[in-house]
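Lab notebook, design round three. We kept the backbone fixed and only want residue identities now. Task for the bench partner: fill in a sequence for the structure below.
Input structure tokens:
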């Protein structure tokens, strides 16, 4: 944006950098403990299935995030609101599956 100052750009850049760092940390905090407990054979089949599902959803979320940002790197300089909505809905799906998981595994 022509009207944006360098300090305003730095704020947006910091938010985007933080979002990507947080996403990578969430992925690591999901996958690494799963692999450790799985290798130690400490997980039931239902927890393994749910954990794999959540890991796959996190991977899809990362792809959707990349696809969303990529939409603003072509002729448009803004992100597609439809891709942003899909990205947000996927986050809600991941949160739902994460919260729902313990109750499903106890049954």
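Proposed sequence:
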């Amino acid at each position: 944006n022509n009207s944006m100052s360098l300090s305003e750009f730095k704020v947006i850049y910091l938010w985007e950098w933080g979002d990507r760092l947080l996403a990578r940390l969430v992925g690591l905090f999901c996958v690494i403990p799963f692999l450790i407990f799985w290798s130690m054979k400490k997980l039931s089949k239902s927890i393994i299935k749910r954990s794999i599902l959540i890991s796959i959803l996190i991977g899809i979320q990362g792809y959707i995030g990349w696809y969303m940002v990529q939409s603003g790197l072509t002729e448009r300089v803004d992100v597609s609101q439809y891709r942003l909505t899909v990205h947000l809905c996927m986050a809600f799906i991941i949160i739902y599956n994460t919260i729902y998981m313990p109750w499903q595994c106890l049954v």
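Keep this in mind before ordering anything: The chain has three helices and no strands.
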